[in-house]
C-alpha cells in the first residue's frame, strides 16, 4: 500500500512539470492544494513558478514593443527611426523564445527526473 502511495506521489509531482504541455497553471495549483505530501507540494510550486516566468516575460515583451512604437506614432517630422529602435523588439522576441525553450525543456527534464 505504501509503494502505491509513493508511486502516485511521483506521478503527481511529475505531472506538475509535464503540465507545461497541456495545463500550465491549472494542474500545478490543483496538485498543490490537493496533495498532502510536502515533496509533491514542493514540485508543484517549482512547476508553477517555471510556468509563470514565460508569462511575466511576455508581459515585459509587450510593454517593450509598445514602448518602442510609441515614438513612431508621435513622430510628426517623419524622421527615420534608428536601427536600435527597430531592432529592439526583434531582439526581445528572440530572447523570449530562447528562454521559453529552455524553461520548456527544463520542465520536461524535471518531470522525467521525478519519475525515476
TrEMBL record:
- Membrane-spanning segments: 15-35, 47-70, 90-109
- Provide an example Pfam family for this protein: MamF_MmsF
Q: What is the membrane topology noted in the UniProt record heading this document?
A: Multi-pass membrane protein
Principal localization reads membrane
Keyword tags: Membrane, Transmembrane, Transmembrane helix
InterPro entries on file: MamF_MmsF
Location(s) in or outside the cell: Membrane
Name this protein carries in UniProt: Uncharacterized protein DUF4870
**Which species?**
Psychrobacillus insolitus
Amino acid at each position: 500500500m505504501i509503494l502505491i502511495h509513493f508511486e502516485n506521489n511521483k506521478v503527481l509531482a511529475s505531472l506538475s512539470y509535464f503540465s507545461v504541455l497541456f495545463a500550465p497553471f491549472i494542474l500545478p495549483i490543483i496538485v498543490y492544494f490537493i496533495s498532502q505530501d510536502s515533496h509533491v507540494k514542493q514540485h508543484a510550486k517549482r512547476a508553477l513558478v517555471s510556468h509563470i516566468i514565460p508569462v511575466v516575460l511576455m508581459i515585459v515583451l509587450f510593454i517593450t514593443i509598445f514602448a518602442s512604437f510609441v515614438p513612431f506614432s508621435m513622430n510628426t517630422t517623419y524622421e527615420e527611426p534608428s536601427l536600435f529602435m527597430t531592432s529592439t523588439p526583434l531582439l526581445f522576441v528572440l530572447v523570449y523564445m530562447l528562454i521559453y525553450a529552455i524553461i520548456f525543456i527544463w520542465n520536461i527534464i524535471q518531470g522525467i527526473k521525478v519519475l525515476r
